[in-house]
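Record format v2
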Amino acid sequence: MLMLSAGLVSAQGALAQGTLRIGMTAADIPLTTGQADQGGEGMRFMGYTVYDSLVEWDLSSADKPSTLIPGLATEWAVDAEDKTKWIFRIREGVTFHDGSEFTAESVVWNLDKLLDDSSEQYDPRQAAQGKSRIPAVASYRAIDPLTLEITTNTPDATLPYQLAWILMSSKANWEAHDKDWEKVAMEPSGTGPWKLEEFVPRERAEMVPFAEYWDETRVPKLDKLVLIPLPEPNARAAALLSGQVDWIEAPAPDTIPAMRANGFVISSNTYPHNWTWHLSRLEGSPWNDIRVRKAANLAIDREGMGALLGGLMVPAKGFLPPGSQWFGNPSFDVRYDPEEAKKLLAEAGYGPDKRLKVKALISPSGSGQMLPLPMNEYIQQNLAEVGIDVEFMVVEWNQMINLWRAGAADPAVEGSQSINFTYFIQDPFTGLIRHLACDLIAPNGTNWGHYCDPGMEELFNQIRTTFDPAEQDEVMRRTHEKFVDDALFLMVTHDVAPRAMSPRVKGFVQAQNWYQNFSSITME
Amino acid sequence: MFSYLLRRLILVLPVAFGVSVICFLLVQIAPGDPLTAIMPVDATAEEQAAMRAAYGLDKPLPLQYAIWVGNLAQGDMGRSIATGRPVAAEVFGAVQNSLLLALSAAVIAFPIGIFLGFLAGYFRDTALDKAVTAVSIAGVSVPNYWLGIVLVIIFSVNLGWLPSMGAGPGGSRDWSWNWEHMRHLVLPAVTLAVVPIGIVARTVRALSGDILGMDFVQALYAKGMSRLDVLIHVGRNAAATALSVMGLQLGYLLGGSILIETVFNWPGSGFLLSNAIFQRDLPLLQGTILVLALFFVAMNLIVDVAQAAIDPRIKRS
C-alpha cells in the first residue's frame, strides 16, 4: 500500500509540473555540447531543442513536406556575380542561454569549432558529427556583427540545406568553463527554446523552457522536458504502459495493439526516410539490366508487407515518399505486378529453367532498419515467386555500416550484389546525390553500388547550380523521376516514424521531418 | 594463515595479467569498426583514417596493449570512444549500481536458498523435498529475462505497484537512497535472485543430506546432543562448500546480469557492457570486462580465505 501511495504521489507530482518524459531509442544522452551525435534522434532531442542553426526546418505542419525557413539567419542570398559567395543576415537580438549575444562572429567561431583543427575551440567530437555535413564550405568571415559571408569550393546551391545541420554553441559559456568541452557538456548553452538543466550520462537529461527565446511562438509551454535513454523496445513499452514515461519513440509493431487498447495514442506520419536495397552496378551484376531491376520492383507485394508491419509503413512508389515535394511524375509505376515481372525477366533471359540467383547483404537489426529479417524474408519469397532466388549474407549492424562504406567492390561483401539500407532523404545531398554521384563511389563516399551515369551527373550538377529554390525543386523532381524510371534501387517502403504517447500529451504536431517541435506540447 | 593469504595474493598477479591480455585481445577479434558509433555514416576514407590515428587504433596490437597496460598502471583506463568520458568514471559508477543490485539479489537469494536446501536435505525423499527440488530446478531453468518481463507486466503494467525501469530519480551515484530508489530495486533484484535461489538450494540440499547420513551425526545423537546442536554441526560442515558456491554466485550476479539490466534499464555494468559491445566502444568494453573479471578474481580470493578460516583442513591442504 505504501508503494502504491508513493507511486501515486510521484505520478501526481509529474502531472502538476507539466513534465513530458520521453523514452528515446538511444542508449545514451546525445552529445550536449552543440553538434549532437546519435544520428537523427540526437539532433531531434538534443540538437534542435537546446540549439539553433542559421537555417531551420519548418516543423509547424503535419500536412505537407517540411521546407527550409529562416533560423538564426533571417535571409540569405548568393552573390549574383560570384556564385561561390553567400551573404547571410544574422537575426538581431538573439542571446544564448548564458546571456551572451549571438552575432556573425559567433557563427565564425562555431564553424572553426568544426572545421579548423588549429583553432582553440576545435572539438573533434563535434567535428566528427558536423564537418561532413558542410562539404561545400571553403571559408567564412563576419563582415559586421549582423552580416556573415560564406564562400563555397564551387557553386553549390545546396548550402542552405547543409547549414541546417550546423548548431551554434556559446563562446562565452565555453570560456566560462575553462575552454573545456567536457565541462561545457554538463552546462551547455545554445540559443534554442530549451535549456539543459540537468544531465546524468546514460540516465536522463532534463530541459526547461528558455523564456527569452527569440521566437515567441516557440517558447515551450511545458515546465520540463525529460529525456531517458531506453534502447530496449520492451523496456520502452513497459515504461510507457506503467506510466514512467509519457512518450516513447519507435514502439515495436507487436506492442501497438496493446497500447491502443489501453488508450495510448500512436502518432505517425510520412517522412523522408526509405527502406531499400541499394543495388550493385559493378560489371557482372545482374542488376545492370533495367529489365531485371524493374522486374524485382514489380515483384514486391508492398500492401502485404504492410500487414506484417501493423500498417506502420507507406508502400514505396519511388525512392522518395509519394507526398514529397520532389517526387515528380515518373513514368515507371512501382506496383505489385508479378506477371509483368516474369515477362520482363523472360525478356532478360531468365525463366523457370534458368532462375536468377542474387546475393543480398542484410542485417538483423539497426537504426531505422524497421524489422529487417522478416521484411527481407518476405521479399525473398516475393522474388522467388517470379524466378529470382535470393541468398542472404547476414551481418551485424555496425559491420553492415562498415561494408556500406566499403562499397560493392570490397572483398568483405563477398560478392553481394545489393545491400539493404534505410536512408535519411531529407535534403538534396543526403537524399539523392550522395548515393549515385560518380565522385562519391565507395570507399571515397557512399555510392555503394559504383553507379556512374553522365545523365545523372548533369542533373546533380544542375541541383548544385540552380540557386532559385523553386527552380531547384524542379530539378530535384526530374532527378527523382530518373531514379524511379531507371529503377535504380529496389524501392520497398517508407517508415512512418511511429511514436506512442499518453493521451495526456496534447498539442503535438508530427511534422513530415526527422526533427520535431516540442514547444507546442502541453500535458493535460 | 598469513602465509596462506600471502600465497593466494601472489597467485592473483598472474591471473590478473592473464585476464588483462584476454580482455584486450577478445574485444579486438570482434568484427566491426570501433569508430563506427562516432563517425557520420558517410565519413570519407580520409576522415576515417584520421580518426583511427587520433584514437591510436592504427598502431600494431602489441603496442596498443603496452600503451593500454601502461596507462592502467597509472590508473588511467582511457576514454570512451562513444562518449569521450573517462572509462574509469563510467565503469565504477556502473559497477556501483550493479554491486547494489547483486547484493540485494544475494540478500534475497542466499537465505531463501539455504533455508529451502536445508529443509529439502533434512526431509530427504519426502513430498517436501520433491516440492523444493521442483522449485529450485524451475528457478535455475526459467530464463530470468523472461521472468523479468512477466514481473514487469504483472507488477508494473497491470498492478502499477512498482516501476519497470531505471534506478530511481537522479540515478544512484551517491548512495543517498530513499524509498523511491528502493521501489526501483525490487523487481530487478527479485528477478536476479531466482537463479541463485535454485543453485544454492540444490547445493545445500545435497550437502546437508549427505552430512546428515554420516556416521559422526549418529555419534552426536548417541552422545545425547540436542537436535539443534546437531544441526549446527551439520551447518558448519556444509558451510565451506556452500560459501564457495555463494561467492561464485555473487560474481555471476555482478557480471552476468546483462539481460536483466537491459530488461529493467538498470544503469549497471551489464547494461554498460551491452552498450559498449553494441557501439564497439573498445576502451569502455576493455575497461568494463577487466573490472568485472578482477572482481571475480577478488571474490574467489575472498571465498578461499573465508573457507580456510571456517575449515582448517583447507589451509593444511
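Confidence is low (pLDDT under 50) at residues 1-16 of chain A.
Chain A has 17 helices and 21 strands.
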